[in-house]
Write the structure tokens for this entry.
Amino acid sequence: MKRTFRDGLWLWGQDAGAHHKPEYGWNIPGENRMGPVEAAAYLDISNCFRVVMGGSPVPPFDDESEKLAGFDKVAWSIMGDKSSIRNNDGADDLEEVLRQAEKYPNVVGGVLDDFFSPETGGARITLSRLKEIRDALHSAPRPLELFLVYYAALFKIDYTPYLDLVDVVTFWSWDSAELACAEENLNKIIAMTPGKKHLAGCYLYNYGDCRELTDEEMRNQLELYYRFYQEGKIDGVVVCSNNIADTGIRSVEIFREFMADHL
């Protein structure tokens, strides 16, 4: 059966309202009530990263995994965003992710969010711990994949030893300057990580510049990711996120229109 663009789509799923918290300063308009399940239905996406943000949700993850049972594939966060302080100082949620995978057959792996710090140049855990996480996922009763978030801003430091240990690199352009170089940068990360799977991160809002994406920015990134997917350069696209899906932002409707024409 031929692989469709929809098959490669993932939703970046976090608690409803998480991106509107004033401490983040992103100035996102509207109100967000849609959680991952509701937003995925609205955007017609069948795979989900369920990611801890601001420390939420807290293990055990069973209640959330029950809600996610209708997704084809789910990857739970082993390490939440940088404001999830329980994942600082070497701590992680690996054991809980492994438990979810044993209980829920659609859990296919774990993701490390905000793993590197552009400010300090460091990583949140040691290479040896990362290898332990990778090995634990691979040796699970049903082998699981290790996903990693990587931003364009990280190119200035060589993180190859870390990248070598993961299975899937999700690549993100944080602001308009990086988005303008998305094709060049996607080719760069693909060349840097041969043998890995690659997912392009598709923002529905310009978090780096704290403004809505222009129609052109949104359409250009969708056309690029679709072309790379069709050419087999990437394995899918991660759409960020449910927190934008019901805010009235124009890029959401552009995404829906694009998908209607390209499924």
Remarks:
- The mean pLDDT is 97.
- The radius of gyration is 17 Å.
- The first strand starts at residue 9 and ends at 13.
- The beta strands are 9-13, 47-50, 73-79, 107-112, 145-151, 168-172, 197-203, 236-240.
